[in-house]
Amino acid sequence: MSPNPEPQSIQSHLKPKSLNPTVFWRLAEDIPKPLNTGLILTSIALPLLLWWLVTTFIKVDPKFLPSPGNVLEAFGRLWSSGDLLKDTVASLWRVGVGFFFASLFSIPIGVMMGSFPSIRALLEPIFGLMRYMPAPAFIPLLILYLGIGEEPKITLIFIGVFFFNSLMVMDTVKFVSKDLIEATYMLGGNRWETLTHVIVPHALPGIIDASRINFAAAWQLVIVSELIAATEGLGRRISVAGRFLKTDEIFVGLIVIGVIGLTFDLLFQYMLQVSCKWASQKK
Fold first, then answer.
1. pLDDT in tens, 168-177
2. Is the dihedral of CA 129, 213, 196, 102 positive or negative?
3. Cβ burial, residue 151 (10 Å; 0-12/13-18/19+)
4. Which alpha helices (H) appear in the chain, and where do they start and end?
5. What was the pLDDT predicted at 282?
6. Are 218 and 235 within 8 A, CB to CB?
7. Is the pTM of this model over 0.85?
């Protein structure tokens, strides 16, 4: 009769063997640059390939889903006529002005709300209330107060960005470690020095990231704002194309907006890397 196996050997046989994680499934770690580049290219190429396959091998009415070739033709037509450039410049100007003024006011107010509980108690309730009011709901009032020019369009973008950005900046500043603030006081710093040399630099990455997120909201609102008696703009271009079932032009407008938004998103990320190198978590 064979001797009884030791308990330790039995547990080693029963214990499931864990697989070593592959490079793809690394948790909270950087992946190799070639893999990162390949995945980025795949995320763009795969949808385009599926789009081409569907429109090539499946009979789809171009009014519902134009082929990539149809969209390229529409792009060339709109670009050669100069309409696409005018629409793009008009939308960029509206988004740029509205977002600039929203950031100009929301970032200092958000920093103050996050730094001083008294300011937060005074403003957070009304800002929270305004945040839940959809910005397009203000369109009738904006037309009544400001007319149908550029002012209501820019103001709509301002309203849609200002309150969200203020509260997101507030949350970023609010969670700055109290140990840093107390250490600054112990080293002889006053409130102003603590605010400008500790709180703001520590929260700067979160402030830039909040602005990056809310810049996307500004682009969503420009489509709505250009429904207010606009004669130029990508939103107007999409709206007019929809009325006449020019789906290829709708795709052109959507793709241009996506490319512009992605470009600015990368610029925000570059700004974050350049201005906040100390906050990088590279190993």
1. 999 999 888 8
2. negative
3. middle
4. 7-14, 33-57, 68-81, 83-115, 117-131, 139-146, 150-174, 178-186, 191-194, 200-225, 234-243, 247-275
5. 45
6. no
7. no
